Amino acid sequence: MPQQGEKTGMDWDKLRIFHTVAEAGSFTHAGEQLNLSQSAVSRQISALEESLNVPLFHRHARGLILTEQGELLHRTAREMVAKVAMTTARIRESRERPQGLLRITATVAFGSIWLTPRLNDFLKMYPDMDISVVLADTELDLSMREADVAVRMTPPRQPDLVQLHLMRVTHKVVCSAGYLNEHGRPEKPADLDKHNVIVYGEDASPPVPNIDWLLEVDVKSGKRRRPVLRVNSTYGIFRAVQSGLGIAALPDYIIREADDLVEVLPELRSGGAVDAYFVYPEELRNSARIAVFRDFLVSRLATEGLTVDA
User: Fold this and answer.
1) Domain residue limits at 121
2) CA-CA distance, 306 to 298, in Å (whole number)?
3) What is the pTM of this model?
4) Residue 6 forms part of a structural domain
5) Are residues 70 and 33 part of one domain?
6) Rounded to an integer, what distance in angstroms lies between the CA atom of residue 54 and that of residue 70?
7) N or C: which end of the chain has fewer CB atoms below 10 A?
8) Regarding predicted confidence, which is higher, 199 or 93?
């Protein structure tokens, strides 16, 4: 057992110096490469030999020759130096050229309807990257590396996260043409009392605050309207509206993806506006993977006419 204060294991600095000496063949040449004096290099090698209790070099007037034990250590040291150099290069490259895994989390609706169909274009631009998408209306903990980046419909609550405002998401009140043919068009918000309204649901964990505002707008009785359906997924609401079940408020990025929805009550467009943010941990600020994905999102949203500025 080692005594108190006794060092165990091998000193990496001494091993690095040993590798340089073994490659150079002399203390003097190694010292020139390491910017150390010949005597300082010699002392480090002697200390390493003492800690291992074996000679590593045969010392001759014409230079140094590795002993059998020195050859063994040299092979290991050479592998370690090569691995460190390779890892360092990969770290530097990861900051300069995007590659590797990027884990993205987004709300179910935004991720499934808008984001995933556009990842093909992103991966064509950056084929060395791998993408993993986790769709959830609850927030994953980025500080615990449950994901690298997030697209959220609320500002981040954690102080150690970098945030970029992506867009203002407006909601429009829509239904299917079939629903209009069967139930007629509401002419004013109060008419919703006589229509089938689809909402997220009070008992769910919504991705945005006050997501069921359509139950409260311009009610005459003072009570919330009774919805025909509650479904804890904006994507589920979208599909229910498409089927002709009723009327709902849906984000504009969803409505743009569908050509079979009809807007009603356009005066209510701003009723459920929320801000979307691109969020990532401070420690990933200089990551090339983060930067190119952020720029891709901003560019696509602007190209498609979705408002980027608040």
Assistant:
1) 100-167+277-303
2) 10
3) 0.64
4) no
5) yes
6) 9
7) N
8) 199
